[in-house]
Structures are given as structure tokens and as C-alpha cells.
Write a structure and sequence with these properties.
Blueprint: H1 6-16, H2 38-54, H3 64-76, H4 81-99, H5 109-137, H6 144-159, H7 185-209, H8 214-229, E1 242-250, H9 264-283, E2 292-294, H10 308-321, E3 325-332, E4 338-347, E5 351-357, H11 371-381, E6 391-392, E7 400-403, E8 406-412, H12 419-427, E9 432-437, H13 444-461, E10 465-469, E11 475-477, E12 483-484, E13 493-501, H14 507-511, H15 514-554
Parallel strand pairs: 1-2, 2-3, 4-6, 8-9, 9-10
Antiparallel strand pairs: 1-13, 3-4, 4-5, 7-8, 10-11, 11-12
Length: 555
């Protein structure tokens, strides 16, 4: 072999090289979990929607909420973006369809179908996001629960704000009224509760991926339970020191349905009669004398400022009971085709001494957005479209009212679902929370779902609260979220209880929107990083190619 031949060099090198210690081959990192088969992903999407549904009232199986989150995450894991979006749509339809079926009770399926489709669209985005992020998160598998947590909070934040002011119904937090996780609302409000539920679901995903290591899987499941049980470590607000005795009158309606407005004289008479009967029981010593009385939303759909008969009827009730009444009334608006949904403080012989105008009228129920376009469509899909001939005007101030000796925070109907409205009411001076609502156009499932929101708000802001409904459910809620003296649905009732006013602020009240904003910002950052990942890869390959070309030119 000629000098310099490769074989000779190798032989010499081998002869003079020191002996090498045997090296142990490094164990490869654990393989990323593979996506489940397509049919299994579809089945998991249906399972996720069903589990989420059963976690809410009227079913109340709150512990199924993390199971739903986990099933949804498994279905979308390492899927293409469009498949993740499709599975999200399936989960959303299975969940929101039955959850919101009360919207079709009296108007037919048209509005219900549109609302369900709109809400499911946000789950479509969530499914897409989970699919896009799962390959990235697999590199640090421990972070998957946290990523799921921020994605769920961001989805709920977006869904609760758009379009037309959003629709926060169906947030994970609202399924936890009977869960220890409810107490986390005292620290960070509804966003923190939703985050904890989603994190628990993410831990269940890790447990499933660790199935071949039973000890690790069992520990991860216990970790999921511990996240929810962490609420037990949260110190709830103590009752306030100022007692006030409050009465709720649930007058009932002659019949359920959207023709409720045609029954307005009978409904007003029912609440007057219920208040007079309560006054008689107080005089007989059967009930303690209240300091104030709460009537529900729509208890007087006849404007007492323009109708003397309605004013006389309300005044008769106030004289009988001898204390102010907070009346839910529909009043004339600024123009012929507008109206106002208000809470009126009525004192015997004086009339209205204070009022709150609902800030967030419900789109398509209390006003028609883009009326010139929407109204012809509404007439095609429901025979009840003509009921929206007038638009409710929004108020612009929190509902803090002085009713007798109490400083009451008035929140009307669906406003209880909106974090900002309730927060601003408390920080503006409300010492009790009062929710005036009218469930006569829906059914008992809607009332139970709404009462769960009242329970969360009572814990979140450390305020004794109540819900007063035309037909039920009415009841009192203490600062631990427990319900007292809940009424039956579609039944006249009146109840009296001593509540306690409070001026203290919880951590959630002080933190305001920041927990949700921070968690949503993290989710946005993760999605932006994932979106630019292919760009970074192309830039890196281009830089490597240029470096190689430069080296070859120098050589």
C-alpha cells in the first residue's frame, strides 16, 4: 500500500492510540405518545362533551369536568390542526346542545341551534390549539397540565366577550358549585377555578400516558384530586358584622312561556299578594319582620311611573310590609321603540328612591344587534320574533342601591355570569349581592345553572347573596357558597333570612381581571411561538446552508 493510504493511516492510528474505556450507550428519551386512532379520537370527543355536560346542573357530577378536559385533550393530541378543530366542534355540540336546550323551551329550535353552533365554534378553536401545541409540549411533558389550564382560561375569556359582549355560560368554574375547588374563587375568581379544573384534567392525561408505570400513574391521578382538594386550604370570608333581615317574594306567573308579557298585570298582582300575605304572617309572629323585600326581575312589567294603577299596587304592598321593596320593572326608554330593564327601590308614600338599569341586555333576547339584517332572518326561524319590537337600552353604572338599612348590589339575570359586572358592583360599595331574575321563559335547568353562578360569586367576593326569581329557583347563599331556603320551581313562595353585610375585599376582588389576563397572555404567547416554529426552522436551515456554502468557498 502506498504511503498515505487510508488503510495504513488507520493501522498506525490504531497502534498508537491509547486504549479507550468502554462507553455505555445513553438511553433514548421516552417516545412521545402517539395519537389515538381516528375513530377513537371521535369517540373521545363525544365522551368529553358528555362528561362536561354531566358536571353541570341539573346533573351536578362536578368531578366529571376534569374527565371531560382529559378526554378532549387525548382526542386532539398530535392531530393535524383541522382534525383538532373538527374534534373540538364535536365536543362543543355534544356539550352545549343539551346544556342550553332551555333556550328552545318557548321559541323553537332556531335560536338554540344558532347559539349552540356559536359556542361550539370556540371549542373548535380550542381543539385546534390543543392539536397545534401537543407536539411542542411533548418535549416537556410535565407542562401539559399547565398548558391545558391556560388554553381553557383563554377560550373562556374570549367566549365571554365576543361577539356582542359574549356569553360566558358553560365555564368550567360554573360546574364546581359543590366541589372543594369552588373555594379557589376566593383567591382568583372564576378564572382560577377553571384553571384548576383544566390542570386536573391535564394530570389525568399524564396518568394515562404513564399507564405502563402504575406507581407514577396512580400518583398523577392523586395529584389531579389534590389540585381540586386544594380549595380546602383556602380560608373563606367570615360573615359580615352588620345583620340585616331580607325577604324574597316569588310571586309566580299564571303560565310559563314568552307570552309572559301578556300576563304582566297578573304577575304584578301575584307579587303584591305575596308581599301582603308575608306581612300578615309577620304581624302574627310567624315570620321575623324584614328590613327590606326583594322582588324579581319583571315583577312589574307595567311601568309604575307612567301607570298609576301599577304604582298604587306596589305602594299598597310596601305599606303592608312597612319596608322598602326592590322591584324588578320594565320601564319606557328614551324613544318609542326602546325600553329599560331596571331595579327600582320603592318606599311607601314616596315611590322610587333609587334605581339600577341593567348594563348588559342579552342580544337577540332583549335587543336585536344589526336589526335591519337580523330581523327578517329572525322572523323566518321563529314566530316569536315580533316580541323584540323594542330594544332594551343598557345602563352605564353599577347597581349599588340603598334599600332600607342595606347597601345592596343589584345584578339582573344573566349579568351574574360576567366577572366585570359583579366585580364593579362590589368595588362600588355593595355589601350584599342581589340577583333579580326571570326564569319564566326557560325551565328549571337554567335556574339551577344560574344559582350555581350566584354561589361562586358569593365565595369570590365574600358577600352574602340571594337570587330572587319570578318562578324559582329563589334562595339565599352565604359566603361559603351554601344555599338556604331554596324555593321550588313554578311555585309561589316567600322566605325571610338574616344576612350579614360586609365591606371586606377578598384577594379575588382586589386582583380583579389580572388572573385571567395573565393566564390568557401565556396561552397567546404559546400559540404565537408554535405558529412561528416552522418559520424558525426554515431560517435555521437557511443559515446552515449559507454556512456550508461559505466553508466550501474558503476551502
Amino acid at each position: 500500500m502506498r504511503p498515505g493510504a487510508p488503510g495504513r493511516v488507520s493501522a498506525v492510528t490504531a497502534a498508537v492510540a491509547p486504549p479507550q474505556a468502554p462507553t455505555q450507550e445513553a438511553s433514548p428519551p421516552p417516545a412521545a405518545p402517539r395519537p389515538v386512532p381516528y375513530w377513537a379520537g371521535l369517540a373521545l370527543s363525544v365522551l368529553a362533551g358528555g362528561a362536561l355536560l354531566l358536571s353541570f346542573p341539573s346533573y351536578g357530577l362536578w368531578w366529571l369536568a376534569p374527565v371531560g378536559v382529559a378526554a378532549f385533550a387525548l382526542a386532539t393530541h398530535r392531530r393535524r390542526a383541522r382534525t383538532g378543530a373538527l374534534f373540538g366542534l364535536v365536543t362543543g355540540i355534544v356539550f352545549f346542545g343539551p346544556l342550553l336546550d332551555w333556550t328552545s323551551t318557548n321559541v323553537g329550535p332556531g335560536p338554540w341551534i344558532l347559539l349552540v353552533a356559536l359556542q361550539a365554534a370556540f371549542f373548535t378553536l380550542l381543539g385546534l390549539a390543543q392539536a397545534v401545541l401537543s407536539p411542542v409540549v411533548d418535549r416537556r411533558r410535565w407542562s401539559w397540565p399547565l398548558v391545558l389550564g391556560v388554553l381553557w382560561v383563554a377560550q373562556e375569556a374570549l367566549r365571554g366577550r365576543t361577539p356582542f359582549g359574549g356569553f360566558p355560560w358553560g365555564r368550567l368554574a360554573f360546574s364546581q358549585a359543590d366541589s372543594p375547588a369552588l373555594r379557589l374563587a376566593w383567591l382568583g375568581g372564576a378564572p382560577l377555578v377553571s384553571f384548576a379544573v383544566a390542570v386536573a384534567g391535564g394530570l389525568l392525561v399524564l396518568a394515562i400516558h404513564s399507564a405502563r408505570r402504575p406507581a407514577l400513574a396512580a400518583g398523577t391521578v392523586l395529584g389531579a384530586a389534590a389540585v381540586l382538594a386544594a380549595g380546602y386550604a383556602v380560608p373563606l370570608s367570615e360573615p359580615g358584622t352588620t345583620p340585616v333581615t331580607v325577604a324574597i317574594v316569588q310571586g309566580n306567573v299564571p303560565r310559563l312561556g314568552l307570552d309572559f308579557n301578556e300576563q304582566r298585570k297578573a304577575v304584578l298582582d301575584n307579587h303584591v299578594r305575596g308581599t301582603v300575605e308575608l306581612a300578615n304572617r309577620v304581624d302574627r309572629g310567624e315570620q321575623p319582620r324584614p328590613d327590606l323585600v326583594i322582588w324579581p326581575e319583571n315583577s312589574s312589567d307595567i311601568d309604575p311611573l307612567t301607570n298609576p294603577d301599577a304604582a298604587d299596587a306596589i305602594d299598597r304592598a310596601a305599606r303592608a310590609i312597612g319596608v322598602p321593596i326592590l322591584v324588578g320593572a320594565v320601564m319606557a326608554g328614551a324613544t318609542e321603540h326602546t325600553a329599560r330593564n331596571v331595579g327600582l327601590v320603592w318606599e311607601a308614600g314616596r315611590g322610587v328612591t333609587g334605581s339600577y338599569q341593567k348594563q348588559h341586555p342579552v342580544p337577540f333576547a332583549e335587543y336585536l344587534p344589526m336589526r335591519s339584517i337580523v330581523e327578517p332572518i329572525a322572523e323566518l326561524i321563529t314566530s316569536k320574533a315580533g316580541l323584540l319590537s323594542s330594544d332594551f337600552q343598557p345602563g352605564d353604572k353599577p347597581g349599588v342601591l340603598t334599600v332600607g338599612p342595606a347597601r345592596v348590589g343589584d345584578v339582573i339575570c344573566f349579568e351574574i355570569a360576567y366577572d366585570g359586572i359583579v366585580h364593579d358592583t362590589v368595588t362600588s360599595g355593595a355589601q350584599l349581592l342581589v340577583v333579580q331574575t326571570n326564569n319564566a321563559t326557560f325551565n328549571v335547568d337554567e335556574a339551577r345553572q344560574q344559582l350555581a353562578m350566584v354561589r361562586l360569586r358569593a365565595v369570590e367576593h365574600g358577600r352574602d347573596s340571594l337570587m330572587a326569581s319570578t318562578v324559582g329557583i329563589s334562595g339565599f347563599v352565604d359566603t361559603s357558597g351554601r344555599v338556604h331556603q331554596a324555593s321550588q320551581f313554578f311555585t309561589p313562595d316567600a322566605m325571610v333570612r338574616q344576612l350579614h353585610e360586609s365591606t371586606a375585599q377578598t384577594p379575588a376582588t382586589r386582583l380583579s381581571f389580572w388572573p385571567e389576563a395573565i393566564l390568557s397572555a401565556v396561552a397567546a404567547g404559546l400559540l404565537l411561538a408554535a405558529a412561528f416554529r416552522p418559520v424558525r426552522g426554515r431560517l435555521r436551515r437557511y443559515a446552515d446552508r449559507r454556512r456550508t456554502e461559505s466553508t466550501e468557498e474558503i476551502g
